[in-house]
Amino acid sequence: xxxxxxxxxxCFIRFDTERQAGxxxxxxxxxxxxxxxxxxxxxxxxxxTAQVDDVEEETTYEATEEEAPDNDKEPExxxxxxxxxxxxxxxxREPEDATNDEEVDAEEAPxxxxxxDDEPSAPPDATSPGALVLLGELSTAYHTKRLQSVIDGPxxxxxxxxxxxxxxxxxxxxxxxxxxxxxxxxxxxxxDEVTASLYGSVIDVDGNQLEGVRVAAGGQQTFTxxxxxxxxxxxxxxxxKVTFFSPGYRTHxxxxxxxxxxxxxxxxxxxxxxxxxxxxxxxxxxxxxxxTQALAAVMGVMAxxxxxxxxxxxxxxxxxxxxxxxxxxxxxWGFLLGSLFSLAALLLLLGDRExxxx
Length: 358
Description:
This protein is an alpha+beta fold and about 350 residues long. The chain folds into three domains: about 1-70, no CATH class; about 135-180 and about 295-355, no CATH class; about 195-285, Sandwich (Immunoglobulin-like). Helix content is about 45%, strand content about 20%. It contains eleven helices and twelve strands. The chain has helices at about 35-40, 45-65, 75-85, 85-110, 130-140, 145-150, 155-180, 295-315, 320-330, 335-350, 355, and strands spanning about 1-5, 15-20, 25, 35, 195-205, 215, 220-225, 230-235, 240-245, 250-260, 265-270, 275-280. The strands form four sheets. A five-stranded mixed sheet has the order 7-6-9-10-12, with no helix packed on it. The protein has a three-stranded mixed sheet with strand order 8-5-11, with no helix packed on it. Strand 1 (about 1-5) and strand 2 form a beta hairpin. The protein is flat.
């Protein structure tokens, strides 16, 4: 289809039309049919072909005029024709050249860094054994024949340290069990509020006993006797504020820690005058730390670490693990004997360090 704008030769009206090449056109205004002047002179496809033919004929004619006058140059033209490659050979070589170019491009293509699916993955590092492998290796130290040979035969200082740590592990486990049994269900007297008693005496700055001084604490009160002594019973243990009143003397208040099932003796000195004094003596009482079952668990863990260190020392491998087991054995307590054995094993390991490197 050819789309173009035409002008009617009768009514001179311009209009757009689409038609096949060589087809006549009808004017939409006056219905006059006509052909375009260009198509009458030159067919649409023949004109370019004719021009190409004229150019080729002129080129051939010029080449003939240049070769015709000189007859001596014919052998050279024959040699040129022989040296010129045939069209068939050129066509045959082109696929080969294309194939070679593709191979070169494939070889020169940059690597994208993405791993090939067919390539096997790198094996894991064999120098760092896993936990299960390490446990399996350490368990071989306690085979009956191997352990018996270490006990009977000549042994190094490192193996002697391993035997000591083995004894430490046994003592530590026994100590942890005994601690758990002893303190099972233990109730500290500081945890529950129980009754307690308070007594003491009141004097003046000259050391004379004061009679009739009112003593109040924990909702109770009493008065000092002729010797300046006082007694308070059925008080609640823990922090307690005790206040002393006497006419002509300054009011004196004291914060104390009232110990249950213990002796609570409080001596107070009053000064003459008005006003009030406050004294805090709660820091004077040391509250004991009661042992719990958590202590038994810590001792048991330290004993197990000493057992691992014993295996490493018997095998003369993993020096750091053997050293760590000796330190843990000191903390396992082991009725104090285990701590002493661990200290001796630590010194033996440090003195036989080269056995682990061999």
